[in-house]
Amino acid sequence: MSGFVRDSLDRPVAQATVTLVPDNQVYKTNDQGYFEFSRLYEGTYRLDIHHVRYVSEQVTLNLTDHDTTVYIRLQESRSSIEQVEVYGKITAVDNLIPAESAAMPVQVITRREIELMGSRRLDEVMKEQTGVAVVNDISAGSRAVGVQIQGFSSNYIMVLIDGQPILGRNNGNFDLSRISVTNIERIEIIKGASSCLYGSDALGGAINIITRHGAIMQQAQASLMYGTLHTLDATIEGEAPFANQRGSVVVSGNYYRTDGFNTDDRYLSSGSTTFPPYENYSFQGRLRYRISKDGTLGLTTRYASRNSKMYNVWAEDLRLEDGQQDRDINIGFNYDHHFAKGLRMMTRYYLTRFHTALYAEWLSQGVLAGEEEFGQYNHRLEQQFAYNPIRNLKLTAGLGGSMEVMDNQDLDDKRSLQTAFAYLQTEWRPVDRILTTVGLRYDQTNVYLGRMSPSLGLQYHLRENLLLKAGTGAGFKAPDYKMRYQVFFNPSANYLVVGNDRLAEVIDGLDSTGELSYVNSYMINQLVGNLQAEKSWSNNIGFTWTPIPTLQTEASVFYHRINNQINSVNIGTGTTVSQIYTYRNLPKAVNKGAELAVSYQATRDLQLSLGYQYLVAKDLGVLDSIRAGNYPYNQYNNAVTGEYRQSRPSDYWGIEDRSRHMANLKLLYMYRPWQTSINIRANIRGKYPFQETNGNQFIDDGDKFVPEHTLLNITVEKALWNRRLTLRLVADNVLGFMHRYMLGQPGRVILGGLSYRWMKE
């Protein structure tokens, strides 16, 4: 089928978008207004024709086995459109479970928002979001830039790409700086228990990265940024349709390198780094092809590699070099098929491989201080179904399984974690003003008993501009194999971490060779082989209020209860190793607080935003021990004031790395005559505890804290040649804040660069 689009004066209309429904093929008319679609089936079709200067048109056709030529005439629009805002659900093309199905709050970061930030890595994007904090876990080393959502640490946040989990955690922390924002279409953040959607590891929330997919024209983009710390970020992207719009391919590549920096020059000599210099390569591609009228095949691939080397110098004869190499491979296949009467089916297979190797060497002595190699595979097969039996009811169901295999040479042999799961999600709208979401998921592993994860969500339009939202859901997390089996030695910090299942074996071995100076036998007897799966229950209630079209306000309160939370515990000291740790369950902990987000479009060119979170995160077992007067929880010893007395429950500040107050402010101004934008963001974080130091086993005012601080970031963007060339200047941490307990936060960083987009007309 071919055709021509013309205006009321019979002139050709170029660059009109012609969409063929239900095939959803898209064609842009050429300078003669011509379009065509080939390899079609007989039947009834609809053409949707859109152009910004003309009134949209729809044409219905009945195709036979003969070629058809169509002539379409558009009427000029009497009004011009300066800006279009789209509201509604956005469903990923390779996953039938949309994020909005979650009972918990969902935040979406668009590709354009990321561009306006000038961010290069995922951690830089996340640290500017309300209710989200990025922290370095010192026990995991400086290479663990983890995320924290509503008080849940990185251990409980699942990170996914296109709905599939990615591997590679350092002591539980998933290092967000591993992920380039190249080729990202949007990022979905689910706050609160998400096990109902994604299974174990999503006990506290999920970050789902959606990559670009689909193409209606051939185009490519290249960008380059360079600046402070010899930071270099180079990206090339391309996309193109093929086979008459039946298929599309999107590819990208990124190279990133930066020097390390030292946030602790008070104790580390010149040349030392607390955050390592590293270089990172990543390549990813996505292909989709419609093989029939109802079926589409999809393929996604990703490869990433990072190499880093760091030096710690305490004295001339005390110099340590450590290096680490990470490799990450992801491959996914999916087949999407539409049946009659509203039934849709998707088959997905996913393979991921993560491998890391690290070493540490004392340079002066030429002695290897430590060496470790760790790798894991994950095979995952899933079958999804979506069905709309009636207009106001949608059902989404699925079942599948995964097998995770570790090949760490430090372990006795290869072990696998096998999981089977099934789930059902329903979205029911009994009346127009009410939407209910009910979910149920069951996971069964070969190590731990099965676990049911229910969730329930409600949205109620009290008025046209006032929406009430509430949700509740359960989450769970089984201990990973590192927590159970791995024995890890950190030579730079001189500590040993022993997996719970190997604790008795390792302690007996150290004791027999005389390498133990102290051991807490009572604690060891309580812990050996007794590590339990963690469970949580999340509750959230809030509202969205839009009093005027230019002002939107969202407010909510949340309460998360965690049972059997896994935490590290000191169980002894050695003659050569200063501290020995293992893992234990904390009986009960709670994260509770409130969030507020306000967005105001002050003028056509000026947008103001505000976000704030208040958080209290405490281990309730600590409060019980303080009330009972148990040693050493009964001691309050403030080294700063010299005060020493009996502890009180009010002395307990909370869990490490959690700020009571966090806020972010944003000002975005567009000066259209110059096609220039300026984006100013201030991320304010209240003080938070870093480490317990006075020996009473809980955080109080006498321990070590990171002070309150503000990170001010500014991005200026200038577009040229109809936005094909973009110049960008980025200034991060303009105020230059640094602290020795914030290992991953550099001082002031200034970068400049450009990007160029090529499009085939």
Automatic annotation (TrEMBL):
InterPro entries, alphabetized: Beta-barrel_TonB, Beta-barrel_TonB_sf, CarboxyPept-like_regulatory, Plug_dom, Plug_dom_sf, TonB-dep_rcpt-like
The keyword Nuclease belongs to this UniProt entry's keyword annotation: no
SUPFAM superfamilies per the UniProt record, alphabetical: Carboxypeptidase regulatory domain-like, Porins
Keyword Membrane in record: yes
Domain TonB-dependent receptor-like beta-barrel: 252-734
Domain TonB-dependent receptor plug residue range list: 100-206
Keywords carried by this UniProt record: Cell outer membrane, Membrane, Receptor, Signal, TonB box, Transmembrane, Transmembrane beta strand, Transport
Gene3D superfamilies cross-referenced by the UniProt entry: Carboxypeptidase-like, regulatory domain, TonB-dependent receptor, beta-barrel domain, TonB-dependent receptor, plug domain
Single GO MF descriptor: siderophore uptake transmembrane transporter activity
One GO location term (cellular component): cell outer membrane
Subcellular location: Cell outer membrane
GO terms, biological process: siderophore transmembrane transport
Pfam short name (any one): TonB_dep_Rec_b-barrel
Topological category with respect to the lipid bilayer: Multi-pass membrane protein
Protein family (similarity comment): Belongs to the TonB-dependent receptor family.
Name of this protein: TonB-dependent receptor
Organism for this UniProt entry: Sphingobacterium gobiense
Lineage: Bacteria, Pseudomonadati, Bacteroidota, Sphingobacteriia, Sphingobacteriales
